[in-house]
């Protein structure tokens, strides 16, 4: 319950590491661990309203010596969880909205195990019928209604079913709002069996993607179809629990009939992040669960399904790319149709790679650079590329030098070929920011032109940082906020700050004034600028 939507395996690895460290901290009595905070950095997901997709935000999680789990995002403490039972694996959230808004309420016994009825609240309001009962030994029992791991404002999805001895059993049904949209049966070993309709990890209001097929002893087998519940294409009727829902066939393929559940033969797969604005599919062939031969990338744009990329894998079943490839940029969508074009050798990029913006009139080269010829796939020398992180905005680029795959020296950030930011990376090939920098907001866009000015001490924000904004590219940036980070390198906000209100953009120019003590917000109030910022 409460785990975040994420498709990155490293999330789970880091969550496991926190769990192991918490148990170790409990075992180490009067040792050094007891007197130290344990800090991990990872990425949490949140919905980018302008780009219509999930993007990543850096989050620090601290396991304190007071047995607390502390979530720190953008220098501010967003959540503190008391770790009552350090021998149990703590619940670690990787969804920004769940970190802020999800709370569970119930009772613990004298041994600090959950017992009796537990209920969930979202933004301080009771989630109707969400929750269930724990037995005296702390196991889930009976009927439970749970939020799905990708639950958030854009994904109000629940699952309802029965627990027996803390394991799922029998029929479980998925609900999207109040509508039944999927589910299936678990056997006595809590393994999926028979026909199932599953939801994609990125299921949300704008990407209602589901998978339909059969399980045997927890393994997929036979034909699995990829369905889309909100696209006006080929309709596909599904009967579930005596009700019909109309979906769309988007793709799929075959799993082997053995016990391994590996993909075989021709497959049509969707982009991870497939949605209304990014209708990208991959077509190719599997051999024993590995991609082989030619794979094509296609994009549905204004009723036209066009090929935009692809390349070849080796035929030996090692899933190694070779030869010329055209790959799409992470975040590829109708408003940012960007590809990377170049050559692979033994699965690594080599030589010159170009970055292209696809256009209905004429494709435009907007950047590129060199990979080393030694076949290890690292960037070298001068590059022009799209800005790091979550942005797929073709108008925002960065240019500078790579050495051994790491940024070094001065890097400039440009918007519509005009320099608006940048700074220095260390010369030691660590790719770490140093000195004065101008960073762009994670959600920088034509209607949210926000920058941050301040200083880095070996990759950590310290001292004064200012927030500046402009209405458009013809205006000057003006200071609208900012404040201080601590000088010790913890990147915690301190003292008086003027922050941007959540959802700040051209038509919602709201700033919040408040005070911080070691990252903890003490009080704040918001100001509305009705006339915009001149």
Beta content comes to: over 45%
Total DSSP E strands: 35
Mean pLDDT: 86
| Largest sheet properties | 31 strands, antiparallel
- Which descriptor suits the 3D outline? globular
* Secondary-structure content class: mainly beta
Task: Point out poorly predicted stretches.
Answer: 1-32, 232-249, 530-534
Amount of helix: under 10%
The N- and C-terminal alpha carbons lie at a distance of: 46 Å
Number of H/I helices: 2
Provide a quick synopsis of the model.
Residues 1-34 are annotated as: Disordered. The chain is mostly beta strands and 534 residues long. It has helices at residues 9-27, 96-101, and strands spanning 38-48, 53-63, 68-73, 76-82, 102-108, 114-122, 125-134, 140-147, 157-164, 167-176, 179-186, 192-199, 209-216, 219-228, 235-240, 243-255, 263-270, 280-287, 290-301, 304-313, 321-328, 338-345, 348-357, 364-371, 379-386, 396-403, 406-415, 418-425, 433-440, 449-457, 460-470, 478-485, 493-500, 510-517, 520-528.
List keywords for this structure.
globular; disordered N terminus; 2 helices; 534 residues; four-stranded antiparallel β-sheet; mainly beta; disordered C terminus; 31-stranded antiparallel β-sheet
Describe the model:
The protein is mostly beta strands and 534 residues long. The protein is built from 2 helices and 35 strands. The strands form 2 sheets. The protein has a 31-stranded antiparallel β-sheet that branches. It is globular. The two termini are 46 Å apart. Residues 1-32, 232-249 and 530-534 have low confidence and may be disordered.
